[in-house]
């Protein structure tokens, strides 16, 4: 398959790297010192699921040059939410009638943003579950989590995946990652939101790891309360979340590496622009639209915005 990885960070470097190592024709969009290191030494991935290096790796900082060779089969869209606008502006040149554009962003709004650029038929909502980051220029580190990338068509027929989704899931599995079949991709996307937004915003507000949040009774209770707010919002919007989704998510929380933190928390605490608007901001915004009360998320948004004035600047 001809694949464009737009954003070679934790997610793009990990899943794109595995697909390249498995023999697919992958071009990585990267920039700066990271791009230089990839060009010089390849893309080096250290992973609890097995280390590998893509060398040579096809990498560029010019999206137009990828589209210049015609549409690709798959776009793995793996930039942060606030980095989407310029990438989406260039995306149409990479998309032909059969191209699948996989979203990997946390939150629930990226699929619609991509659909506005290239149409719903191209979009495969995706959910990445793993802890992975850029360690140094050219080097990606995967420290834990399921290591999965769930994908499906926008309007999937249960039990009857499209040919391109079947091929893609098989390619992901053959590359050494997991790609479980979701019952309902939208419920899966919201379930991830229900996990990551409470974890991310409370982790940032309290400067706590997942191990600390889950082991102190006070923060554990807040985590569950925040998850219940997202559950109420999702159900109000007609999302068919699994029964007992909060209990199931807390069991998942208990299973994650104790020192795990979210990308949101790390970006906020290190003073970088962040996805706060797409995570906590989206919960508050969508709740107001759906007339659902989310006081804990409102408080977290207020506190984090006041404490990190650059957080909403993309
Ligand atoms: N990391 C994780 O464990 C998980 C992340 N996610 C989600 O996946 C998405 C991606 O996250 P993650 O991989 O951590 O992010 P990273 O910041 O690690 O990766 C994004 C990469 O894209 C690059 N980039 C952005 N715009 C451009 C551009 N126009 N041209 C070239 N390069 C560009 C960035 O470069 P630069 O640094 O120079 O801006 C960066 O290297 C997020 O929405 C996140 O919520 C989901 C599950 C787990
Ligand atoms: C918490 C984590 C690593 C879970 O996949 C995540 O999605 C993020 O930090 O963006």
UniProtKB/TrEMBL annotation:
Domain Ketopantoate reductase C-terminal: 184-306
Physiological role: Catalyzes the NADPH-dependent reduction of ketopantoate into pantoic acid.
Class of the enzyme per the UniProt entry, highest EC level: oxidoreductase
Membrane-crossing residue ranges in chain numbering: none
Protein known as: 2-dehydropantoate 2-reductase
Residue ranges annotated for the Ketopantoate reductase N-terminal domain, each copy included: 3-154
Pathways per UniProt: Cofactor biosynthesis; (R)-pantothenate biosynthesis; (R)-pantoate from 3-methyl-2-oxobutanoate: step 2/2
Known EC number: 1.1.1.169
Keywords: NADP, Oxidoreductase, Pantothenate biosynthesis
Organism lineage string: Bacteria, Bacillati, Actinomycetota, Actinomycetes, Micrococcales
Similarity field: Belongs to the ketopantoate reductase family.
Catalytic activity, as annotated: (R)-pantoate + NADP(+) = 2-dehydropantoate + NADPH + H(+)
């Amino acid at each position: 398959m001809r694949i464009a990885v737009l954003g070679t960070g934790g997610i793009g470097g990990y899943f794109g790297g595995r697909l390249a190592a498995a023999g697919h024709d992958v071009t990585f969009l990267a920039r700066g010192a990271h791009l230089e290191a990839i060009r010089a030494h390849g893309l080096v991935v250290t992973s609890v699921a097995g280390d590998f290096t893509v060398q040579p790796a096809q990498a560029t900082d010019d999206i137009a040059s990828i589209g210049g060779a015609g549409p690709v089969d798959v776009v793995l869209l793996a930039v942060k939410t606030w980095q989407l606008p310029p990438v989406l502006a260039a995306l149409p040149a990479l998309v032909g009638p059969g191209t699948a554009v996989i979203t990997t962003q946390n939150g629930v709004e990226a699929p619609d943003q991509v659909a506005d650029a290239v149409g719903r038929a191209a979009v495969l909502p995706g959910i990445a579950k793993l802890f992975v980051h850029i360690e140094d220029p050219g080097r990606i580190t995967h420290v834990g989590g399921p290591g999965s990338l769930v994908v499906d068509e926008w309007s999937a027929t249960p039990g009857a995946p499209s040919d391109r989704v079947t091929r893609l899931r098989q390619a992901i599995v053959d590359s050494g990652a997991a790609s479980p079949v979701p019952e309902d991709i939208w419920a899966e996307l919201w379930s991830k939101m229900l996990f990551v937004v409470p974890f991310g915003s409370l982790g940032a507000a309290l400067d706590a790891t997942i191990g600390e949040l889950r082991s102190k009774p006070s923060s554990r209770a807040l985590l569950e309360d925040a998850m219940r707010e997202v559950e109420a919002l999702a159900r109000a919007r007609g999302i068919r979340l699994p029964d007992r989704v909060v209990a199931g998510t807390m069991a998942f929380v208990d299973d994650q590496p104790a020192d795990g933190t979210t990308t949101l928390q790390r970006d906020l605490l290190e003073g970088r622009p962040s996805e706060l608007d797409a995570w906590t901001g989206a919960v508050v915004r969508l709740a107001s639209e759906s007339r659902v009360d989310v006081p804990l998320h409102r408080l977290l948004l207020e506190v984090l915005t006041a404490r990190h004035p650059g957080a909403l600047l993309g």
